[in-house]
Amino acid sequence: MGIYNEYINSYDEYTINLDSNESYLEMDENILINMKSCLNSIGLHRYPTNEMNDIKDLYANYAGAESKNIIVGNGSDEMIELVVSNVITQGKKALSLGPDFVMYDFFVSRFGGEFKTYDIGKSMNFNVLEFIEVGKKENVDLILFSNPNNPTGIGIDLESIITILEAFKDTTILVDEAYYEFYGKSMIPYINKYKNLIVTRTLSKAWGLASLRVGFLITHEDNICELLNHKIPYTVCSFSQNLASIVLRYPENVRNNAKQIIEQREVLYENVKEVEKNAAMNIRFYPSKGNFIYGRTAHIQALINGLENNGIIIRNFGDDTFRITVGSPMQNRKVVEGIKKIFCI
């Protein structure tokens, strides 16, 4: 399974793609009209602005931060890479969760670091004291993890993250909040108290702007200048900047979208748990704080192949685990029906 499978997607109009945690909701028509009208004003012969002050101000207002605490980048991936490159050199160590977002390992390895994990995949439980013990034993230089966790859907409470920050006061700790809108708990209010804290966000998930590749890094002001010294200029194109600046003026839209997706997530979870209860073969689904449902089965190939035969693509992790993105009500019904056909003989 290639590392970029997280991003691979089929665009066959007859295929239901539930493998990349994209939003199933279309952009509001009025916002879309405004987005289209702004494209005519882009000068193709000019580089995009590097400061992006308008976007910083808009996102700061939404996130409850100040623009001086924000860096805008080419998706949260660029922001994560920026942090890793600033901390990790040959032989240094990073600690994350197992499993977690595949790009953490990729970036750490790319800069010569050792990637260590605290396993939550088997127990589906996060024990903060055990996590700290692993970090201390390995003497790690960087801690990074997603919250809520991708792919398990586990949400780590803020008190546990504060405990980690207190235990590793001289260690950079990156909390990836790509799925924040589906969880509602954020570490951004603590960035001025803990200088070693960095939060990343994205417009790719709840905002429904995956194609624009716009992400954010939010941290103490003292960290911003140092990180900017390592950042490549002009990484966010003018099209993405202009379109993002339009959508960010409608924060109520993302809140409404997140609410709908959460509602569909809970309905989907309830329905697949019913399938689990009546299944002739073992399959298990877990509660989630993201826009996806994580599951496990020894019959993974039967699941993947059976759904593909019905035109449904979900995320296969190459072991006994899988992840299903929350789709529209119709898509979710088809997923449930497809799984029922395979497992409820």
Question: How would you sum up this structure in a few lines?
Answer:
The chain contains eleven helices and twelve strands. It is of the alpha/beta class.
Structure description:
Strands 2-8-7-6-5-3-4 form a seven-stranded mixed sheet, with helices on both faces. A five-stranded mixed sheet has the order 1-11-12-10-9. α1 (29-38) packs antiparallel against α8, α3 packs across α4 and α10 packs across α11 (329-343). The longest helix has 28 residues, at 251-278. β11 and β12 (321-325) form a beta hairpin. It has two domains: 6-26 and 252-343, Aspartate Aminotransferase, domain 1 (Alpha-Beta Complex), CATH 3.90.1150.10; 41-249, Aspartate Aminotransferase, domain 2. The protein is built from eleven helices and twelve strands. With 345 residues, it is an alpha/beta fold. The protein has helices spanning 29-38, 53-63, 75-87, 102-110, 128-138, 158-167, 221-228, 238-247, 251-278, 300-309, 329-343; strands at 16-18, 70-73, 93-98, 114-119, 142-146, 172-176, 197-202, 215-219, 284-286, 292-296, 312-316, 321-325.
Average residue-wise pLDDT: 94
Write the CATH architecture name of the largest domain. Answer: 3-Layer(aba) Sandwich
Structure summary, number of beta strands? 12
The CATH superfamily of the largest domain is known as Type I PLP-dependent aspartate aminotransferase-like (Major domain)
Helix content: 25-40%
Number of helices: 11
If strands are numbered along the chain, what order do they take across the biggest sheet? 2-8-7-6-5-3-4
- Overall geometric form: globular
Strand content: 15-25%
CATH C-level name of the largest domain: Alpha Beta
The end-to-end distance, rounded to whole angstroms, is: 30 Å
Describe the largest sheet. 7 strands, mixed
Structural class: alpha/beta
